[in-house]
């Protein structure tokens, strides 16, 4: 694949490489970022390779971030992993390097970078990074640490291989990564673990989820509730998929009040395509998993009503077919 060769040429050419990912990271953001960093370090011991983006909350079992000065960006190659649009890039210095590469599996709505590789059919950006290694003809070399991180990213973004984006290629790559000597059970354990406070919040979601007759769910989590339960912002992601365990819930938004009074809106779906709705509200993402922003509860209501219409139309079309 020509574009992979172009990416490999840039990696080979630059002595300093800085790798970014998106804010509020998930396992694929950290897995692809750190997996790529460790692959490059393993393959080019003399290169300086940094992972940036600030705190990562309870995902520090995958890796930790580096803190670097602005001067490091001079003449550096910058690679942004798993980030569809520039507002979501964690650490806004991503455009301060000499050359910028975007590697992602979200729809390419924001075509930023000097070199862009986007495959929205891939299960995860971690899958793409492994394909890049495989295409390098030995130039890039996996090691156990990178394999564990990339595997964690794939497991996270496929929902443990349950989501529709999981393909035969996903399983091939997973098999390749698991040939390295790391504890698969520990990865699964980390993915499944929640704190007692998070478990109580999950229970609260089950008790208070608003759901209509078509299976459209709404849950609003206030700052007051987070404070009462002792939940940090970076721990809320553990409950985003909670409504999906309910047979009655087809698509939902889980809405979290932010410190500035706005709301972060998490979209999830078992069928209806929701990313266009997310785009209409300063967001975007995958067809069945997206995020957006709402200025106030009035906009949250507008989003929910639009989601209800999407779900209703989806179910009507299903009946017709």
From TrEMBL:
The DHHA1 domain, residue ranges: 230-312
Domain of life where this protein originates: Bacteria
One Pfam family, short name: DHHA1
Residue span, DDH domain: 17-154
GO MF, any single term: nucleic acid binding
Coiled-coil regions, chain positions: none
InterPro entries membership: DDH_dom, DHH_sf, DHHA1_dom, Oligoribo/pAp-PDE_c-di-AMP_PDE
Name of the protein: Phosphoesterase, DHH family protein
């Amino acid at each position: 694949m020509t574009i992979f060769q172009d990416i490999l040429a840039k990696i080979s050419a630059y002595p300093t490489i800085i790798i970014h990912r998106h804010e509020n990271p998930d396992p694929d953001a950290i897995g692809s970022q750190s997996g790529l960093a460790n692959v490059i370090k393993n393959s080019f011991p003399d290169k300086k390779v940094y992972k940036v983006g600030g705190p990562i909350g309870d995902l520090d079992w995958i890796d930790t971030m580096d803190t670097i000065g602005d001067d490091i960006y001079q003449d550096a190659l910058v690679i942004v992993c798993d980030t569809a649009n520039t507002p979501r890039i964690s650490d806004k210095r991503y455009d301060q390097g000499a050359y910028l590469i975007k590697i992602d599996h979200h729809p390419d709505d924001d075509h930023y970078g000097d070199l862009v590789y986007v495959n929205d059919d891939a299960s995860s950006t971690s899958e793409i990074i492994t394909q890049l290694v495989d295409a390098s003809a030995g130039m890039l070399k996996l090691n156990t640490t990178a394999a564990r991180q990339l595997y964690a990213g794939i497991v996270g973004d496929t929902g443990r291989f349950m989501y529709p984006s999981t393909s035969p290629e996903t399983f091939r790559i997973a098999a390749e990564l698991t040939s390295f000597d790391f504890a698969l059970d520990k990865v699964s354990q980390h993915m499944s673990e929640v704190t007692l406070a998070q478990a109580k919040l999950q229970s609260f979601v089950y008790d208070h989820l608003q759901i209509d007759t078509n299976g459209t769910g709404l849950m609003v989590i206030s700052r007051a509730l987070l404070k009462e339960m002792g939940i940090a912002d970076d721990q809320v992601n553990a409950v985003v998929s909670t409504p999906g365990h309910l047979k009655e819930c087809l698509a939902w938004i889980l809405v979290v009040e932010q410190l500035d009074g706005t709301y972060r809106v998490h979209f999830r779906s078992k069928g209806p395509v929701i990313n266009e709705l997310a785009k209409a509200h300063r967001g975007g993402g995958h067809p069945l998993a997206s995020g957006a922003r709402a200025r106030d509860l009035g906009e949250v209501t507008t989003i929910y009503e639009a989601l209800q219409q999407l779900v209703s139309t989806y179910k009507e079309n299903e009946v017709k077919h």
